[in-house]
Amino acid sequence: MSRNLFVTGTGTEIGKTYVAGLIVKTLHDAGMDVAYYKAAMSGNDRRPDGTLIPGDALFVKEFAQLSQSLASMCPYVYENAVSPHLASRIEGHPVRMEVVEETFHAVSRKHDYVVVEGSGGITCPISWDEERIQLEDIVRKLQLPSIMVADAGLGTINSVVLTYAYMKQKELPLKGIFFNNFHRGDVMEEDNRRMCEKMTGLPVLSCIAKGDNELPGLPAEKLAALFA
Fold it and tell me: Catalytic residues (predicted)?
């Protein structure tokens, strides 16, 4: 069975998929057997034949040059760019925890490391009408340690501290923070980094600038040690 790491974020559109891709690519480039998994993915385009393209999974697969099949990366793919619980209400095919467990463990049995990406923030509802599942329930069920992705800019202190406090209350282990869209030397962003560390007690593990193709300051060996 694999060692695993969950990628959560302070909200949506803050770069979880990009950071997940960097994590996967770093391990893959170091010769490690790594895979990607995301339980539910919304906001996807269709192929000419009408089938949905799991866009986040495709990005990671191509960015990290994985041979892993797209079909194994995500069991629930939706077209509407809304929370998965609403997308499934509109489109049908609601998320079932037993399917998430089964498909995750199928990936886990085949690889040494699995990077699991969340949908939105940690409280995001994945299913609601048929079976009440929030993202935190998946993290707990699969027993995943987490890292938090945050935008480096204005407002991040509040969102980082609130996400940290919620996960601490729910006893979901956090290994550290990844700052995305970081501008080294920027007074505010450097202070955001310092304040987030002081107010949460978590380390900022990497500060990622737009266009980075590797994780600054985090070699593969140190990255792999975050997995459990």
Answer: 38
What residues form the annotated binding site for Mg(2+)? 17, 56, 117
Pairing between β-strand 146-151 and β-strand 3-9 as defined by DSSP bridges: parallel
* Tokens 């030397």, located at residue: 185
Active site residues: 38
Binding residues for ATP: 13-18, 56, 117-120, 180-181
pLDDT band at 97 (very low <50, low <70, confident <90, very high): very high
Q: What is the pLDDT of residue 183?
A: 97
Residue ranges covered by each domain of the chain: 3-224
Q: Are 36 and 22 in contact (CB under 8 A)?
A: no
Which CATH number is 3-224's, of 2.60.40.420, 3.40.50.300, 3.90.580.10, 3.90.1010.10?
3.40.50.300
